Structures are given as C-alpha cells and as structure tokens.
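Teaching note: in complex prediction, the entire set of molecules is handled at once rather than each chain in isolation. The prompt given to students was simply: 'Predict the structure of this complex.' The entities are:
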Amino acid sequence: MLGIVVVGGGQAGASLVAKLRENGYGGPLTLICGESVPPYQRPPLSKAYLKGEMDRERLFLRPASFYTDHDIDLRLGQWVTKIDPIRQILDVNGETLPYTQLALATGASPRRLPAQIGGDLEHVYSVRSLADIDAMAPQFVVGRKLLIVGGGYIGLEAAAVAAGLGLEVTLVESSPRILQRVAAPETSDHLRALHLAQGVRLLEGTSVKQLTGVGAVQGAVLTNGDHLQTDFVLVGVGVTPSTDLARTAGLTIDNGIQTDEQGRTSAPAIWAAGDCASFPHKGERIRLESVGHAIDHAEHIAANMLGANLPYVAKPWFWSDQHDVKLQIAGLNTGYDNVVTRQAGGCSTSIWYYRGNQLLAVDALNDPRAYMVAKRIIEAGHTIDRGLVNDQGTDLKTLLAAGLASGITTSRH
Amino acid sequence: MAKITYIEHGGRRHVVEVANGLTVMEGARDNGIPGIAADCGGACACSTCHVYIDPSWVDQLPKKDAMEADMLDFAHEPDPVLSRLTCQIKVADALDGLVVQMPEKQI
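The expected output is the structure of the full assembly:
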C-alpha cells in the first residue's frame, strides 16, 4: 500500500485528496482524520450551524460515497503520532504506514485561557470543531448569560448568533478595539455600532482576570473590576498552527510548518497545506487562516505532488456574517498607511486600504459590488486612484475598468 | 426530489436526483459534478457556483435577492436574465426537470 498519505481531514486535506484524484493520481491514497466525522465545512460553525439554521448533514464537504467511489482510504478518529522522514513511514494508531509522498494538513488549534484563571472549568468552550459546537448548543437558550472572550471574527460572529437567539451577551476584548489585529478603526467602528444596537455588551480594552466557579464556570472577574455572572463562556482568542507532529519529525517550523513557494517542507517528499503552513508571499513569509486559502493551497500542492512545479500565489479573501451584515474582505491589509471609506447608500459601505497609492485590501460591509471590484483589481496586481474610490458618483464598473487599466502593478519587495 | 440536469461548459450532461431542501449547488457537489466550485460553501460570499438557467426555467425560480444580484454582476460573463448562484436556489418538487448550464469558468 505504498502511496500518498494526507494527515488532517479539514478543508485543506479534503481538497487535496479530491484534487489528486481529479488530476489523475491513481495510486493508493489515505486521508487520516483525527476527528470522528468526515471532512466538513468550518465557516458555518460560528454562523448558520450555531444558529440552528443548517443541518449537520449539510456541513459535510462530500457524501460518504465520495471516498469509496474514489478509492480514498478515509480513516476517521485516528491520530498520527510520529513521522520518520528518512524511512518515509509514519505511526498511526499503533500501525506503521509507509508513504511515497506525505501532505500535512494539520490545521490549527484554538488558544485556550490558562487553567490558572479558570480556562479549564466546564462550560468554557472553544469555537473550532463540530464537537465544540455540539457541546455548547444546549446552552443557546433565551435568557442565558454568555461571556465571549475575544473580539475577533469568531467572537463577534458568535455574539451575533447568541444575541439573535435572545441570550444576554457580554464580549470582552483586551485590545483597545474589536478587530484591532485585522481591520482598520473604521471597520471596527461600524461593527461596534452594529453589535451595540443588537444589545451586545461590548467591553474593549478589557480582559478576564479570573473565571470563577466550582467545576463549571459561574462568573468572571474582569480587569475593569467588574464581577459578572455567566452561564457559559466562549473563547475566541485566535489559533496556533498545529505543528507538533512536524516539529518532532525535525521539519523546520517558522510561524507554522515552513514551506517553499510550491508547498514543500524542509523534509523530502513532505508537503504542508492550509492553516498549518507558512509560505513565501510578496517577499515575506505568511500564514493564512481562511477557507479560500485552504482550498487553493491544497489544490495547488496536489498538482505539485504530481509534478506540476507551480509556485503558489495567494489570493486572500475572507468573509464574516454578523447580524444582518455580510462583511467580505479582499486582499491583505498588512502594512497599510491610509484608508478611504466609500459609502454606497443604505447600509452599504466599504473601507479601502492603501499603502501609498497601492490598493492592498478592501473590507466591504453589505457591499458585494465593492468587494468583487476590489478583488479583481487586487488579484490583477493593479490599483485604483483614491479620488475615484472616494467619489460616490463613480460607478463601480467604471472603477473596475479604471483599476484594471491602471497598469500600476503591485510592487514586489 | 427533483431531477436536475447540469451541463458542463464543454457540453457534458449530468442528470441527477437532488433531495428537497438541498441547494442546486449542493446537488452538484454531492454528485461530484465538476464546474461548480462553491468555495464559500453556500454562504453567498464568493460567486464560484454561478450557472446559466435554461431560459424556460428562469421565471419558475424564486427571484434573486440584492446580494446575489450584486455578486452575479461581477461573475464571469454574467447574463442579466439567466445567471444565478446555485447556492441560493433551494430544490423542491417544482424544480423537477431544471436544466442549468455552467459558465466557462468560476471566478
């Protein structure tokens, strides 16, 4: 059974095995999933699924028959404990499995609150896996008190769902503002107003000093001196790439499993895809946590495992659903030095991030047209004059044409 | 349950039964039909599940909302009448016989 083995059954692992088969790989193919369910979509976990609007069955990326039809040995609830990159074997559930090529799609793990401040109390939940959501689902009852730790996308999406279901929601964010790490103050302001209007209590510049309770959490002491009662706690304070397996196998780790532009790790015949992997991007080394990247990166690496030799060029995009707002993000705003806000009437607005005159990214709030235009311009490596963006009289299709004709290409430093 | 015909850009036809309550996108995904990417999984957040509806079916589908219309406006070669995002079309008995045509590519 010498063939390709993929470790990790998230979006990247699932996309990778599907692409290998689609591209004609006919040899043995094994997908090892630590979770006991087949690969599923994560984005709805903090949105429609948490809200109870989406059946469990619809989360699965492929029907069970897909894996048998495509002769993929799907191993559920199995964990790889060791990789020997020299002998090209790995240990999984006490069995030794050889591989010709190995792809690591081990994903990322949610950060937890330290046990010293009560992070290991019962009813303190992470928002990462289907099991996490199923465990917390019974808590989502009208009138229950929920404390959310972390004002990033996960925390804010959960806050929107909970407030919509009639829970009493308090959200604490240790930074001076929500989304500080990922968005401009303009985007934070817009979403803050939205959550406040929906009855979410937002405490920025505030963190948890101590969760209290015996066995299960019952309350929290905050750094602003508040003592509050709570029935349960959601922790959304980011993730760390799952690199333990790679590290102990001697692979180079640098903000995730280090890969080259084709997706190769430092070890022969081992590749890494998705959330767990860092890769070169415009002269820097980055890691992306998004479903769009997980799909593209994995499919790219599948092609390279079969000899395509193509560099991966990331085209980052993200989205978030909160209350009645759909936020769509094109590009990466890292390094921006100025922003332009474009009002599109009604509740539609978009925030355009620039470094100098170069458009880097756009946050579009209920403004899919702005998102689509910006995505095209950014992916083409072009830019668009700030004055045109700022002028509400400029039609978006005119913007797109102007942007694509700009000829100013993204500097690669 | 509805019988739906998906026609790839190259002309290859796939006729499959799709259960009520699923979306036309999920019908393609669950049957391994290529040409509908659905990167966002059905959240109306990308536009990679774009198809052209057979003209005889256009009026029989629920109307597009503003979000879908705006996304479609910037999809690959959209048609103002025929283009739809398949993640926004729920399957019901009334859709039995629906025919959809894939675009050249999804962007």
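Point out the following to students. Chain B has one domain: 2-101. The beta strands of chain B are 2-7, 13-18, 50-53, 83-85, 99-101.
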